[in-house]
Amino acid sequence: MTMFYFVRHGVTSHTGHKLSGWMPDIHLSEEGEAQAEAAAQMLARVPLKAVYSSPIERTFETARFVAGPHGLTVRTRRNLGEVEYGKWTNRSFKTLVGTRLWRTVQRFPSAARFPDGESLREVQMRAVGEIEKLRAKHRKQAICCVSHADVIRLVCAHYLGVHIDLFQRLIIGPASVSVISVDDDGPRVITLNSSPPEARSK
């Protein structure tokens, strides 16, 4: 059995305002660093054997907080990276909410593809594929994967047996921890969107 601890990155200046996507140089804010530290404290006594991260700065910075108490080096995996939002990258939510594609993303996400970017089905496929590779590598171990809200929601939906069209019902807050165990008999979702009060976005 592999125990996966999924952590969403802490907040940045873009969180809740813009789609950062794969934009470079978007770092944790002071609040985001505090959230990442709180998540690290939650996991300090978990016997983690490895910490993996999306290669994007905000996730890597969060992962370093988590890895610190365990003396681990963060390893990056591109398949844990953010959705490729294409032309939606760096656009404000205010400008996106009224678009037809936004409605599709919310109501029929399995049919959604971002302009010059990925479909949500593709994101789920590559992220779950990476998790299965890590499961094979870390049997009978606990590991942490630091990623992004939509990616974690898509992974959790897969292991919950929830259709992708319902994945928007899952909430993954900043620096939250979700725990899933997976073995050859199947997955068990243990915790979803857990965070201490000090880690919750104001």
Report on the structure:
With 202 residues, the chain is an alpha/beta fold. The chain has helices at residues 30-42, 57-67, 93-96, 100-107, 120-137, 149-160; strands spanning 2-8, 48-53, 74-76, 142-147, 177-183, 186-194. The protein has a 6-stranded mixed beta sheet. Strand 2, helix 2 and strand 3 form a beta-alpha-beta unit. Helix 5 packs across helix 6 (149-160). The longest helix has 18 residues, at 120-137. It starts with a strand and ends in an 8-residue tail after the last strand. The model has no long low-confidence stretch (mean pLDDT 95).
Identify the overall geometry. Answer: globular
Q: Which class do the helix and strand fractions yield?
A: alpha/beta
**Strand portion:** 15-25%
Number of helices: 6
Within the CATH hierarchy, at the fold level, what is the topology?
Answer: Rossmann fold
- Mean pLDDT across the residues is 95
Number of domains: 1
CATH class: Alpha Beta
Query: Which superfamily, in CATH terms, is the homologous superfamily?
Result: Phosphoglycerate mutase-like
From the 3D coordinates, which CATH architecture would you assign?
3-Layer(aba) Sandwich
What can be said about the biggest beta sheet? 6 strands, mixed
Q: Which radius of gyration do the C-alpha atoms yield?
A: 16 Å
Relative helix content:
25-40%
Rounded to the nearest angstrom, the distance between the terminal CA atoms is 36 Å
Low-confidence stretches: none
Could you give the order of the helices and strands?
Answer: EHEHEHHHEHEE
Q: Can you list the strand order of the major beta sheet?
A: 3-2-4-1-5-6
